[in-house]
Specification:
Number of strands: 3
Radius of gyration: 16 Å
Strand order of the largest sheet: 1-3-2
Oligomer: single chain
Strand content: 5-15%
Helix content: 55-70%
Order of helices and strands: EHHEEHH
Largest sheet: 3 strands, antiparallel
């Protein structure tokens, strides 16, 4: 197992990275395993590493959609 430093984010810190409402964060957490919160005592946290992976996956997915919809002459410029 590879050990990586991970920071536990509070909701407000998470919302700085993913700027959506509190309700949307919790709704996403029910659908996306990477955004499932970690409960410690009465507090709720999110793994910064998991959030970063999720955001990178979104960026990759969006870039793939974008490059697949561009005309051929513009797709070559993106590569």
């Amino acid at each position: 197992m590879i050990e990586q430093k991970d920071k536990l984010l509070k909701l407000n810190e998470l919302r700085e990275i993913i700027p959506v409402s509190r309700a949307t964060i919790y709704r996403l957490a029910t659908k996306i395993p990477l955004l499932k919160p970690i409960k410690i005592g009465g507090s709720t946290f999110w793994s910064e590493n998991n959030v970063k992976v999720y955001v990178e996956e979104l960026k990759t997915k969006n870039m793939n959609i974008l490059t697949n919809k561009l005309p051929d002459n513009l797709t070559n410029i993106q590569k």
